[in-house]
Structures
1.
Amino acid sequence: MEYIRKLFQGNADGHGFDHSFRVWRNAMMIAEEEICDPQIVSLAALLHDADDYKLFSTENNANARRFLKEHCFPPETAERICAAVNSVSFSKNGGKRPETAEGRIVQDADRLDALGAVGIARTFAFGGGHGRPPEESIAHFHAKLLLLKDMMNTDKAREIAEERHAFMEAFLREWDRETGAAD
Ligand code: ADP
Ligand code: NI
């Protein structure tokens, strides 16, 4: 945990330690309902952004591998964790559905963190970090976030996504009401 916390120190764009921790929580919730290796899910979730190109310029999962090596995980386990991590990212796997259950679970867990109250907060934090006013970030809901519930791999994630989706729709309706967009 401390390693992950240090790695992401000073990052406020919604990708930091707190995101990794929430993705881990989501992933463990989904893993209970799926046939999978919970140890791989747990570590892949915690490490899923440890080598994200937006934050780090590491190659071949160097940050994740260093952590796993320091904690004496056998090479096969490290390999499975890195494979799961790499299958989660849209850019790294060309948009394909992850081949392992562990990859599919962590992908769902990561996507769930873009939805609901947390998703709303992250969207405005991201937009603000890029110098954009809130009005401009509203478009991101329609462009991406409202599509995510139909992209989930697992039943449990689909169920949680439905609730978080409804919450975002209520938020957008209230936004339209308060800004006069609904008039
Ligand atoms: P991750 O790598 O964790 O899957 P992303 O890098 O796609 O997440 O996005 C991080 C957060 O920033 C998400 O909550 C996402 O919805 C938000 N975000 C990404 N692009 C935009 C954008 N153009 N405007 C507002 N928010 C965005
Ligand atoms: Ni992530």
2.
Amino acid sequence: MERIVVKSPADGSVVGEVAVMPPEAIEGMIARAHAAYLHWREVPLHQRVEPLRRLKRLILQERRAIAELVAREQGKPRIEAMIVELFPPLDVSAFLMYDGVRLLQPRRVRSKNPFFSDRRSTYYFHPYGVWAVIAPWNYPFTIPMTQLMALTLAGNAALLKPSPLTPLTGAKVVELFERAGFPEGLVQVVQGGAPQGSALLASPTVRGVIFTGSVPIGRTVAEQAAKTNKKVILELGGKDPALVLADADIQHAAQGIAWASMVNAGQTCASVERVYVEQHAYEPFLEALRAELAKIRLGHPLHEETDMGPVVARFQLERVQRHIEDACARGGRVLLGGRGRADLGELYHEPTLIADASDEMLGMQEETFGPLVMVQPVASAEEAVRKANASAFGLTASIWTRDPHKAQRLAPLLECGSVSVNSHIVAYGDSYGVWGGVKDSGVGRTHGEFGLYELVQPQYVSEVYTGKPELWWYPYSARVHRITDWLMAFLASPSLKMGGATARRMLPELRYLTRHFSPLKMTGGLLRYLR
Ligand code: NAD
């Protein structure tokens, strides 16, 4: 059987290995997941919370082991793993236990449609069934863990396919679900790469997919999923802009952007890769950012005082180098870094700051996904917004200013899924935020109310027991025609005169209407159409 041997990107030591799942074995796993789903969807919501509560406790108990595994397998510092990989699942589980349960309860529909005034209508939120969760390597714990928590609370089953670069963390995620007491087979792990992902997508039993990864693979996932009409959520790449306005607290902005551009060695979908600075603040900001980036301590991910570890693999280094060379060839100024740190290990790279970036540089257009941040001066806040939007991506953005009015005016103009003011990537940490992007950055949302409703199929049930025939049922008649036409004419040009005169003429007809609807509710509903 084929195996994946995981080596630490920091020092090449073997972290562990897993067996790759032969694609032909995957249909059997899907069948088990489906059987588990048929039972699980009948479990009342308040009972589905119990294993979720135990899962949360397990994460807390095993925090050190999880953080260490992520640090060794993926390369982010252990302390960073504890913060960015473990806090979001804790927050999401709390959100789901309190608000998720409430949001998924059947809910009365307060319809004002005059023709449905005698009805009682309800929304029910039904699970889809079995999902594929196809995950990336850069946040191998928090991304699948939070997605699986929400999927299962909503009554679904799921097969997680982790990245072949971080299979051990993927296996750990699923192990925790099993130990928390979720039904056997409800959450399983499928180890492997593209063939295993494709096998999941080919199955008609898999009804939905949450894919988190790169734009090109996201497109092929959507194409594959379309063949069996699956629900598709795509969380894709980013090229996040930070807009530093002339009135910003420069030191605070530099400190925040230094972190947001270099967290996880820049391998964050929402890391700051482009900074647009109003001219007046440009030089002071560059100096402050250079000073903050210079403080970053590269080192082994398991050392306590490491701020930044290695990148995950050689292909990441090559892209960073290509973007730096391209920027230099087009007049960019390297203010800090620019080189690999082979003395620390093959996959280490200095935090790199490039000033005087121009729009055509690769590093201002393509996702770099590494320890590189590029800065460009702009004449005004409006120009910063225009440039921020002139991108194929639209995941998140940040505005740095002391002026709330300016921030509130500019934020909705930014084409992206979330905006942080005087910070960055806040939406992922707050489970009440919405996570997801626009344009090439993705389709659909995860997290919060809007993310939860993506995982269920709302069903509308409408009940009536008056025994009255609906107005539009057969037989069609001249009378129904007259009534309908009069109603439309009145709505088209409502006037008291017309209302009075015709109401007299239409009185018998209106009486006829009461055979179908209660007059008071109907009149109230109709008045709405006059707006
Ligand atoms: P990737 O697209 O290379 O791989 C993602 C997953 O897809 C992996 O599990 C991979 O094995 C699988 N896969 C590959 N080919 C497939 C196929 N043909 N069919 C089905 N599955 C297939 O991405 P990556 O390198 O693991 O992750 C980095 C990318 O993810 C970056 O672009 C980053 O911005 C993005 N990302 C986005 C978010 C977000 O929330 N928007 C979060 C994290 C990462």
